[in-house]
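Query structure, 811 tokens:
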């Protein structure tokens, strides 16, 4: 028996082997690693039989030894063949022990030094699979975008198609490990994945892995890793096949697209210049660099247009935003710091002409004028800097500066193009914010100049007004307050709210405030004053452009407090009612009948009169104070009433009280202007006023003059006796001649001496210059010469002529 023969036929072999028939009979291909081998002598007799031949045919060595090979062939030739006649290659159908046939391909070769022939056979399906598998491997190994590596059970590279250009410029030889090619930590990470595949048999598909080559750690590469376990014929792990795809370029393109989308979504939503700059700096990290800053021209921060500059020197830029917030910045970079002067370097000139420039440490040293100042302005480890101008309408608004530090990659040409697009969008957003800042500041300046002083101190009351502009839109919406001193120590209190916003609303507010002040000097009743203001608003609406007719209007509350009578008369044109805080701390809304807003004419207004104790606080406000957040006006009024009851204490200054209430009730970014005017009332003591009725008799004039002289002497005002006697004489005479009874003379002492004569004739007097021959007409002219000021106010069915003389302070 040949050394290749088996000593015996294993029991049951013929029953357990099955095959696939090449002639159409069914069956399964035996699982074995071919080819099967047999040895024939020169007569074609089987003299050697291997285990793989037994696995293929089901016959053991004892069954086939000494038999002609033709007995194993299903379709033998008619002429017996000897070994010398066996072809070198071919295909035949072999008989299987179980009665089926197997289509095999064979190859023969003569055994060296012998007449015997070695026959190697393999099933045709196995041969086709091997051919296809070999073709697949050749195709994979030919790919230059996919790196294929076969690793053994120790994860040593057995075979790979990696070329020097595919990795780090160094050839990958069989027997190498991943650590010979990749950085140690990257190799350990990938080997952990491959070890898991080898141990569990669970494949990995498309796992993202960032790696750097061992000898070229920069740049980092993004790999997509797929791996599956290799097994031998008996199903035992034989190694791991790994496929690596370089996703660096697609990933970079995807990140750039995501960055462009993030800039479009996150930058420009605010109309605040500094906030817009910070949004621009934040969105660039970490996708674009390690540190970022946005510098803006000082003029832009002020809302103005920057001056065009070329060449080196002071660029008048200041740092407006830094990112990330956790970065350790060098001493020279702080928010608000000016950008130091730069030399007239070619890079600077390119930047000033609108180009995005990239430079390294040496270039920056040349720009800044030396290594020492450069160290104060470069983040630690900087190796590349990109500066993009914020260029709009031919002007440089500022700059975006991005630093890359440590092992990060240099900037690419694609990134320069992307930064140019980002800077263009950022410049537009910052220029919009700058324009808003300019309009907002102009509107605020106009608003502040149109408002009265925040606090006043008059005989009738001390007042404190607080105004908080809206946090949205153009910043102002035409809310105002006013405290107007009136004759006879009285005080007018006003709160109003103009429809619209911005400079137009502020201008309308200024016109209404001026009109109210003018009408207040004429001392009409509150309802009459509002009627006249409503007529004015109608005229303003008629003068407005066609598109603005429907937005012209306002609400207004007008109140007049008299410290002598301690009464307050008020009327509302669509305005919220005031809140009264009594001296004992009780707070309540005043029950007042509101009329229509000032834009509506033809409807009457109603005057409401209430009594006020000295030390009471009357709070006038606008709608923005009680209509904040989710609160409706009713809830907001309740909150305001509670806050006033808690805060309005006699020992607390009104201005601090007003600010505290606004801080408590108004949102951080209010939707509407909020205005609050607080007035703590005073009263003129009874001993500082004197009254005397006037009979309708000319003889009453000397008596009135004498009574006034006695009262002034009692008050210690002897230095005012002569002018007062003349004033009383003229006013009383005028009331007796031209007025109607009843009439009354009243004197009031405070910082001025007030002399009033009231009669029941509503017709007003008229100051005129009397001719030489006229017997009368000189009384009011004389009063005007003797008094500091004089006037006439009208009430329902009466009028009052008054005069004021200053009282010299006591020494």
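Result returned for the query:
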């Amino acid at each position: 028996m040949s050394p290749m023969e088996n000593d015996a036929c294993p029991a049951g072999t013929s029953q357990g082997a099955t095959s696939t028939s090449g002639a159409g009979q069914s069956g399964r291909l035996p699982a074995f690693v071919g080819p099967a081998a047999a040895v024939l002598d020169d007569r074609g007799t089987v003299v050697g039989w291997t285990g793989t031949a037994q696995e293929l045919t089901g016959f053991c060595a004892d069954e086939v030894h000494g038999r002609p090979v033709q007995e194993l062939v299903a379709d033998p030739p008619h002429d017996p063949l000897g070994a010398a006649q066996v072809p070198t290659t071919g295909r035949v159908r072999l008989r299987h022990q179980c009665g089926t046939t197997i289509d095999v391909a064979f190859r023969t070769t003569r055994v060296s030094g012998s007449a015997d022939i070695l026959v190697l056979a393999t099933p045709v399906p196995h041969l086709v699979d091997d051919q296809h598998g070999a073709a697949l491997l050749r195709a994979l190994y030919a790919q230059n975008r996919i790196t294929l590596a076969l690793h053994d059970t120790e994860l040593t590279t057995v075979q790979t198609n990696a070329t020097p250009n595919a990795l780090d410029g160094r050839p990958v030889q069989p027997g190498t490990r991943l650590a010979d090619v990749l950085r140690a930590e990257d190799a350990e990470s990938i080997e952990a994945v491959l070890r898991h595949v080898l141990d569990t048999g669970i494949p990995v598909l498309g796992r993202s892995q960032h790696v750097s080559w061992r000898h070229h750690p920069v740049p980092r590469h993004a790999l997509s890793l797929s791996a599956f376990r290799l097994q031998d014929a008996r199903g035992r792990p034989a190694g791991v096949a790994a496929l690596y795809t370089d996703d660096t370029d697609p990933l970079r393109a995807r990140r750039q697209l995501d960055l462009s989308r993030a800039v479009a979504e996150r930058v420009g939503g605010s109309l605040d210049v500094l906030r817009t700059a910070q949004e621009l700096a934040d969105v660039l990290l970490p996708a674009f660099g390690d540190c970022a800053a946005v510098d803006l021209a000082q003029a832009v921060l002020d809302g103005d247009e920057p001056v065009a500059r070329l060449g080196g020197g002071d660029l008048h830029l200041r740092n407006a935003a830094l990112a990330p917030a956790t970065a350790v910045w060098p001493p020279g970079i702080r928010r608000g710091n000016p950008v130091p002067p730069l030399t007239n370097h070619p890079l600077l000139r390119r930047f000033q002409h609108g180009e995005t420039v990239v430079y390294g440490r040496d270039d920056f040293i040349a720009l800044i004028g030396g290594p020492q100042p450069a160290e104060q302005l470069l983040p630690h480890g900087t190796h590349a800097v990109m500066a993009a101008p914020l260029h709009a309408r031919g002007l440089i608004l500022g700059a975006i500066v991005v630093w890359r530090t440590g092992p990060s990659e240099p900037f690419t040409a694609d990134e320069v193009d992307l930064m140019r697009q980002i800077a263009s969008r950022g410049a537009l957003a910052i220029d919009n914010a700058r324009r808003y800042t300019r309009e907002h500041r102009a509107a605020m300046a106009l608003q502040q100049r149109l408002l009265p002083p925040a606090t006043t101190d008059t005989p009738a009351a001390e007042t404190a007004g607080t105004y908080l502009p809206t946090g949205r839109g153009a910043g102002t919406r035409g809310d105002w307050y006013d405290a107007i001193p009136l004759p006879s120590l009285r005080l007018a209190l006003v709160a109003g709210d103009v429809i619209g916003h911005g400079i137009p609303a502020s201008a309308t507010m200024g016109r209404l405030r001026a009109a109210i002040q003018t009408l207040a000097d004429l001392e009409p009743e509150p309802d009459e004053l509002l009627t006249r203001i409503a007529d004015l608003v109608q005229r303003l609406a008629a003068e407005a452009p066609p598109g603005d007719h429907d937005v012209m209007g306002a609400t207004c509350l007008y109140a007049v407090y008299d410290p002598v009578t301690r009464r307050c008369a008020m009327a509302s044109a669509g305005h919220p009612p005031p809140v009264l805080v009594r001296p004992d701390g009780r707070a309540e809304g005043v029950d007042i009948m509101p009329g229509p807003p000032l834009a509506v004419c033809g409807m009457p207004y109603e005057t409401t009169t209430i009594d006020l104790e000295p030390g009471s606080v009357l709070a006038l406000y606008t709608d923005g104070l009680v209509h904040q957040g989710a609160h409706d006006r009713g809830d907001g009024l309740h909150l305001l009433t509670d806050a006033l009851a808690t805060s309005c204490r006699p020992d607390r200054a009104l201005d601090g009280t007003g600010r505290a209430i606004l801080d408590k009730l108004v949102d951080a970014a209010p939707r509407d202007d909020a205005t609050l005017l607080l007035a703590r009332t005073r009263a003129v003591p009874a001993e500082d006023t004197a009254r005397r009725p006037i009979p309708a008799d000319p003889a009453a004039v000397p008596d009135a003059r004498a009574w006034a002289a006695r009262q002034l002497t009692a008050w210690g005002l002897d230095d005012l006796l002569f002018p007062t006697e003349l004033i009383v004489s003229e006013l009383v005479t005028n009331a007796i001649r031209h007025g109607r009874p009843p009439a009354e003379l009243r004197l009031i002492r405070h910082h001025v001496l007030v002399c009033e004569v009231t009669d029941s004739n509503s017709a007003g007097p008229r100051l005129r210059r009397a001719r030489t021959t006229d017997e009368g007409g000189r009384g009011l002219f004389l009063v005007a010469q003797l008094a500091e000021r004089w006037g006439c106010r009208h009430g329902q069915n009466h009028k009052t002529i008054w005069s004021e003389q200053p009282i010299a302070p006591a020494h």
